[in-house]
Specification:
572 residues; alpha+beta; seven-stranded mixed beta sheet; five-stranded mixed beta sheet; 20 strands
Length: 572
């Protein structure tokens, strides 16, 4: 089989990957970037699902009293004891430097006006106590364009259409990876250091805000290799638009007091609220954060939407109706002290360009999966418990916890992407390539459908998994549903192995992706079962209260007796 040698292997091509690759190259390492899609045009960072991207920087632009200490306090408060305070502190301290780095390569952050030296435009994003979210128009695509252009200018080696199947690990050390090329043939990539930047796993869910290639590959291959995963029960899910286009529904828009109704035009929120709780109070609380959280009464927005859809009150497209058609809209938008008033012109124009007038038209909404808060447990250099295996971006855990500040993931990609790149380059300078007698030892063969009985379509199997995840893992969780979901995962895995129709190299990639999604779904359900309480983004209907007895992290470890153990990240 073909073999490639490099100092540093970067798996992925989003914001974290590009930052890591550039930093590793600056550190003197030979760098190879491998992407199962197209370099500079794939991954979650490139996939715009909102009119703006938020980038948190505590530089005082939105509040002169803001600073790294106030930022860290917000991160830890949202984390509810589940974030690693050491990594959170690094994020708070290095956020401003990350913004300067991006500006140096041409990323434009919006200003309050066109005047030279005008202040940055900021708003108060999810779970933040202050307006520190700096605005990038067109979500985070400008980051990929800027850093990708620099990578191309430097002649950085990038290999498209090459899917990493598994990591090569010997004696607790990562020595590279095994990949599958576009012809369906195996390729061995030997590396002194490997950086995972494969993003999350939101394609596990039927409704999600991610591109089709975000299939949990990094989580699955790292877990198989013996890496520890943590906080996998915590994820961001929230209200999104599904028609006339797919888009994240910004938290500040709730301050404009939208109306919600079912397929027949009937208001539905009041049908699912506890007695004594008003619609106005719930919507007012929802403006604090986009993602679902069990921590406050805004949870009844997503709970009501999910229950209404489950009970058949959704439209033919599976959504519910939302509009801003009411008499108070103009007065709300005239108050420049409100984030929605400052952000409305940009948001309104962005929607109008796509054929929707937010002041007149209804849109369809649902609950959609977004980012996973958990991932590989890493140290301050972004290295996992496997030597030579680093992780950055959404695939890594630590800076975030039960809830995550909106605008923090983009910063995390830059801060820990940079740290991973520098540490990987230092490791590559210090060691030589190890000999590998058989790089495929201990690895499963490529998936292939049997000639007879190969009746199952891979797309149908994936859809079944997504439907089950939406029902039992997205917003509403309980023990019975989580166990049913794991049973469905087991059945799907058996069908994938025994009766899936795999005929082409593209089918091989889809089968590998489906296997990874099943594995990640099982891991998320295991973590959710191991936390019989509600905390932040993890909500158990059968255990709706937060329980101090579970103020520890759940670390998924394939070598542990039950597949997991509990510990505090700050103590490890």
């Amino acid at each position: 089989m073909r073999e490639i040698r490099t100092d540093v292997l970067v798996i992925g091509s989003g914001g974290a990957a590009l930052r890591a690759a550039l930093e590793a190259q600056e550190g003197g390492a030979e760098v190879t970037v491998v992407i199962k899609g197209e370099f500079r045009r794939s991954g979650a960072t490139f996939h715009s699902v909102a009119e703006v991207g938020a980038f948190n920087v505590p530089d005082g632009a939105g509040d002169p009293d803001d600073g790294p200490d106030a930022f860290l306090k917000d991160i830890l408060a949202a984390g509810q004891g589940m974030s690693d305070p050491r990594l959170s502190a690094i994020l708070a301290d290095e956020a401003e430097a990350a913004l300067r780095y991006l500006e140096g390569y041409g990323v434009h952050f919006e200003r309050t006006c066109e005047r030279e030296g005008a202040p940055y435009l900021t708003f108060q994003a999810c779970f933040s106590s202050r307006p520190r979210s700096h605005v990038i128009k067109d979500h985070f695509k400008p980051i990929v364009k800027a850093l990708g252009s620099e990578a191309t200018r430097r002649g950085l080696s990038a290999l498209d259409r090459l899917m990493i199947k598994d990591l090569i690990v010997r004696d607790g050390e990562c020595l590279g990876a095994v990949a599958v090329d576009a012809r369906g043939e195996l390729v061995v990539i030997r590396a002194k250091a490997t950086i995972l930047t494969t993003g999350g796993a939101s394609q596990l869910f039927r409704t999600n805000l991610y591109p089709s290639d975000i299939t949990g590959d990094g989580y699955a291959m790292a877990h198989r290799a013996g890496a520890h995963l943590v906080n996998m029960e915590f994820m961001q899910a929230g209200v999104s638009i599904i028609d006339p286009f797919v888009n994240l529904f910004g938290n500040y828009l709730w301050d404009a007091r939208p109306n919600l109704s079912d397929r027949d035009g009937r208001p539905f929120l009041s049908d699912y609220l506890p007695e004594g709780l008003s619609i106005a109070a719930v919507i007012a609380e929802k403006q604090r954060h986009f993602p679902f959280s069990s921590s406050d009464i805004s949870r009844f927005i997503e709970i009501s939407i999910q229950k209404a859809i489950n009970e058949g009150r959704g439209t033919d497209k599976g959504g519910l109706w939302l509009d801003f058609i009411h008499d108070d809209l103009d007065s709300i938008l005239q108050d420049q002290s409100r984030s929605v008033a400052r952000m409305w012109p940009l948001t309104y124009d962005w929607y109008k360009e796509r054929g929707t007038d937010l002041s007149k038209d209804k849109v369809e909404i649902t609950c959609s999966a977004h980012a996973i808060n958990g991932g590989l447990r890493i140290d301050q250099d972004a290295q996992s418990n496997i030597r030579g295996l680093f992780a950055a971006g959404e695939v890594a855990a630590g800076p975030h916890g039960a809830d995550r500040l909106g605008g923090n993931m983009s910063v995390t990609c830059q801060v820990f992407g940079g740290r991973a790149g520098r540490a990987a380059a230092a490791r590559a300078r210090a060691i030589d390539h190890r000999m590998i007698a058989d790089p495929l030892e201990g690895h499963d063969a490529l998936p292939s459908g049997p000639a007879a009985g190969a009746t199952q379509d891979l797309a149908v199997l994936r859809q079944r998994l997504q439907i089950a995840a939406n029902r039992h893992l997205l917003i509403l969780r309980d023990e019975q549903g989580l166990l049913a979901f794991r049973e469905e995962c087991a059945a799907l895995r058996q069908e994938l192995d025994e009766t899936a129709r795999i005929e082409t190299p593209a089918d091989v990639v889809q089968a590998l992706e489906l296997g990874n999604l099943i594995a990640v779904g099982e891991l998320m359900a295991l973590a959710a079962l191991a936390r019989p309480e509600s905390r932040g983004s993890h909500y158990r209907e059968d255990c709706p209260a937060r329980d101090p007895a579970f103020a520890q992290n759940i670390l998924l470890d394939r070598h542990a007796e039950h597949g997991f153990f509990r510990a505090r990240l700050g103590d490890l």
